[in-house]
Design goal:
Blueprint lengths: L1 H22 L13 E6 L7 E4 L5 E4 L3 E4 L5 H12 L8 E7 L4 E6 L5 E4 L6 H7 L10 E6 L5 E4 L1 H6 L14 E6 L4 E8 L5 E6 L4 H7 L13 E4 L2 E4 L7 H8 L9 E4 L5 E6 L5 E4 L6 E2 H7 L12 E7 L2 E7 L1 H6 L8 E2 L4 E4 L9 H13 L7
Length: 387
């Protein structure tokens, strides 16, 4: 029976050792201070089990032992002292002391965390540890800034992004007793950017930070038909920045514009496209259109952009007026063959300065007045065809 009893006691001791090792302080060298809470357990003597609080004088009051010093000692040292005192009254008393609550060494985490308040400071605890123990950020880390107020009054600005990148670096400092961490959500920062020139709505726009040239163009209603996007520039202070490379097609330019980030105060200038062609005559929308590619604009695309020929047009007698070596050359082209897919030999692309004239149906011979009339109309409107 006695052997069984001792075996049971040993088993209980092992269980308690395991339990207390999991709940004791993370570092046995951590010292106790005023306000800390200890848990005392005495094997086979539950009458001595009690919760002990370190009083203002640094002592704890233990049943059967009276007042004993505790502040400045580790829980292991307190356990040794209590074991020695209790064994004066008990035979082979097995004593365990567990540091239940560490109230003397506290830090505070306030602001943008899920569980703001006080935390017990553990040896080696860093900034990110405290944030994690407070439930983590309420918002994404990129939207949070903060300060660390030391117990001695020193205030440090926190770089949370750098702390994430270097968790053992200076940006993720080891905390000290009395530290106050204040975390704030960064206001939804806006930037004011200006855009003038060939856009539908010129002016000053308040945009989200990290906005792009493409998003500003969209906010401004998009470019006009005569805009030369490839020649757009951004003024940043007194520095003239070429927004994007020239001599590229619209799709590639817009892809690059989606990556071009604007800054507060930027001025975007979208100039007028000096490289135009004209489609006039029996067409849905006569007028000037920009040459959007250094390779020119296919005639099929030009007709589509001008809303196509009218029902009274004669595509077989179309005229192309091309400026070559400071001379205007008139070329007859049969667009009916081009559109119908028949064998077509002739001009397929319009270049800057070209004028495509679609005449009306009729059997009479085409004269210069048929060409000059619409050109005169454009001239009256102040349109320059050649530059």
């Amino acid at each position: 029976m006695r052997t069984t009893k001792w075996l049971l006691q040993i088993a209980v001791m092992i269980i308690l050792l395991f339990f207390f090792s999991g709940n004791a302080s993370a570092d046995k060298k951590e010292t106790v201070g005023v306000g800390d809470v200890l848990e005392l357990s005495v094997i086979n003597h539950p009458e001595y089990d009690q919760i002990l609080t370190v009083l203002a004088d640094g002592c704890i009051v233990v049943k059967g032992c009276g007042s004993m010093a505790a502040s400045g000692l580790t829980d292991a040292e307190i356990q040794e002292n209590l074991s020695r005192e209790l064994n004066k009254k008990l035979n082979n008393a097995v004593v365990y002391v567990n540091l239940k609550e560490l109230r003397s060494r506290l830090i505070r985490v306030l602001g943008n965390v899920k569980q703001p308040g006080e935390l017990a400071l553990r040896r080696g605890m860093r900034l990110l540890d405290a944030i994690a123990n407070s439930g983590g950020f309420l918002t994404t880390q990129k939207e949070v800034t903060g300060k660390l107020v030391r117990g001695n009054g020193i205030v440090l600005d926190l770089d949370l992004a750098q702390a994430m990148l270097q968790p053992v670096g200076d940006s993720n400092p080891i905390l000290k007793t009395g530290d106050l961490i204040i975390l704030e959500e960064v206001p939804d920062k806006k930037v004011r950017v200006h855009i003038i020139g060939e856009v539908l709505n010129q002016g000053v726009f308040e945009m989200q930070r990290d906005c792009t040239l493409a998003s500003l163009l969209s906010e401004a209603g998009g470019p006009t038909v005569s805009a030369d996007l490839g020649a757009s520039v951004v003024w940043r202070g007194s520095e003239k920045m070429i927004a994007l490379p020239e001599n590229t097609d619209y799709e590639n330019w817009m892809n690059a514009a989606r990556r071009f980030v604007l800054e507060d105060g930027d001025l975007v200038v979208v100039p007028k496209n000096q490289n135009n062609f004209a489609v006039i005559g029996q067409i849905g929308k006569p007028g000037l259109y920009p040459v959007s590619s250094p390779k020119g604009v296919p005639i099929m695309n030009a007709l589509a952009e001008a809303l196509g020929p009218t029902a009274s047009s004669d595509l077989s007698k179309a005229i192309l007026i091309r400026n070559q070596a400071n001379q205007s050359v008139v070329v007859k082209i049969n667009l009916s063959d081009l559109l119908s897919g028949k064998k077509y030999v002739g001009v397929r692309v319009l270049n800057a300065g070209d004028i495509l004239y679609i005449p009306p149906k009729g059997n009479r011979r085409l004269g210069w007045e048929d060409i000059l009339a619409p050109l005169t109309a454009l001239n009256v409107l102040g349109v320059r065809l050649f530059h």
